[in-house]
Amino acid sequence: MKFQKATALTLAAAMSATLAACGSSTAPQSQTNSSAAVSETSAAADSTEPSADAEASAASEEAPGEVDGATVTYDQIELGTTGTDLNTEIKLLTHRTDMMADDYNGTNWNAYLEEFGKVYPGIKVNIEAITDYASESLLRLQAGGWGDIMMIPAVDKADLSTYFTSFGDVENVESQVNYTKNFEYDGQVYGIPSTANAQGIVYNKKVFADAGITELPKTPDEFIGDLQKIRDNTDAIPLYTNYAAGWTMGAWDAYISGTATGDPDYMNNKLIHTKDPFAKNADDPGTYPYAVYKVLYDAVSKQLIEDDYTTTDWEGCKGMINNGQIACMVLGSWAVTQMQAAGPNAEDIGYMPFPITVDGKQYASAGPDYNFGISAECDATNREAAMIFIKWFTEKSGFSYNEGGLPIAADDSRVPDLYKPFTDNDVAFVADNPAPAEEADLPNEMNSESELAINAGGNEKVQSIVEHAFNGDEDFDSIMDEWNQKWSDAQDSLGVEILN
Fold this sequence. Notes:
By secondary structure, this protein is an alpha/beta fold. The chain has helices at 109-119, 133-143, 160-163, 170-174, 205-210, 220-233, 247-250, 258-261, 266-270, 288-301, 314-322, 335-340, 380-395, 399-402, 420-423, 442-450, 459-471, 476-494, and strands at residues 30-33, 36-41, 66-67, 70-71, 88-94, 123-130, 149-151, 168-169, 184-185, 188-189, 192-193, 196-204, 237-239, 326-332, 349-353, 363-368, 371-374, 428-430.
C-alpha cells in the first residue's frame, strides 16, 4: 500500500481539502448516554486539522446487510425503515475532538447520537476521537481491527477497495450525495463527505470597519492595502498566520485551484502536466498559484502579521479574532463557527472570498471535508448499521449546516448565512474534477516525488515562505523557482508529459 509521504484534512478536505475543522485536545476522556459511548485518544501532537429501495430486514429471511442477496448500498437505504431491527454496536474514529465536550459551542457528539438513537435504538455508536488524526488514522488503517467507520485519511485511490466498503456505484450515489469525487474509484464510491467547505478568509467585520474599509477586497493588491489600513488605524493584528500550528500553513494550498484559476480541472488534471506551475502568470500576475502564495509573502515582508510568528496559538486565536485582536485569517469556512463561538462577539465574525479575480469574476474552491469510510472488515450487520448511521448523519442530523458547511445531501439547498458575501457578489463555487482513471494516483505520486505535498500536509513549504519573508533572506520569485524545479524533477522522474 502506498501512502502519501506527507498527509493532512478534510479535505477537505479534502480538501479538497480539504481541510477538516480542528478539535481541542482538552476534551474529556469519556462520555456516555443511553445510545452511545464516546471516548478520546490523545496523540503526541496538539490540536489537529486544519471524504432499488430496501425493505425492512425484519420482514425477510435475508441476512442483515443484504437486499435480495446483494450487499445493501447507500441509495437503497430508507431511513426509519431499513435496519430498524438491527441490534449491534459500531465504532467511529473521528478527528472532531472538540465535539466531545459537553460545553462545545455547537451540537456535540452526544446530542447527535441521542437523536440517532431515537430512530435506531438498537444501533449503539461508540466514538473515539483522535487528536493527531492524520497520522494516527493511517497507523490504525495499516494495523486493521480499528472499528467500523473512520474519516478516510490520505490513501491512494487504488487501495480504497482493500480497506473500505463501497457505498455503491457512482451514478446511484451521486444522485443522493454531493462532493463524492475525492473517493470514487473504478466506478464505485468509497467515501461520503461529513461536510463541505469553501475556501475564503475569516475576518472581524468590526475591525475592518474601524480601519475604514467599506468594500471587501477583490485582488491581492487591494487585500494588502486593506491589511495596511488595519495596521495604521487599529490595534489589531492584520493577518494572523497561525504558523506554529503547522497544518494551518498547509491550508494555503487549497486556494491555488478553483479560487485562483476558476478552473475545476486545474488541480487534478492540469497542474500535474504544467511546466513551472508556480511561475507568475504572464497574462494576469494576480491569479494562479503564484498570486496565492505571494499574498502571504507580501503580508509577512510588510510586517502585517503577528510580531512573533513562532509563538502563534491555534486555540487562543479563536478568542482573539472574536474580540478584535485579530483582523483576519486564511482558513476554510469550517472555521467560522468556531471563531463565532469563541467569545461574545459572534456577529462580528464574517467570511469573505479570497481576493483573486479571474477575468472579472471571483471564484471559491469548494469540496468535501473528511469523508466517512466503512471498513472492509465489517460483517454484513455492522456494514448495514454503519451505512445507516452515515446516511442519517448526512440527511437528517443537520451537521453540515450546523458547522457552516455547504450541503452534502443532493436534495438539500440550505446555505448558511456566512456565505452571503459570496452569493451577494456572484462568487462561483468550484469543485475539483478528479484525475482520469489511468492517472488516479498520479497527484499523490507527484506530491511524494516533489516533496511539495500540495493539499497533503505540505506545511513546511508554506512555513518557509513566512520564514524567508520575515528574515528577508530570499525573495519570493526565488522560492517559487525552487518549487518549480522540484516539480519539474518529479515530472521527469515519473515520465509525466508536459501539456501546459
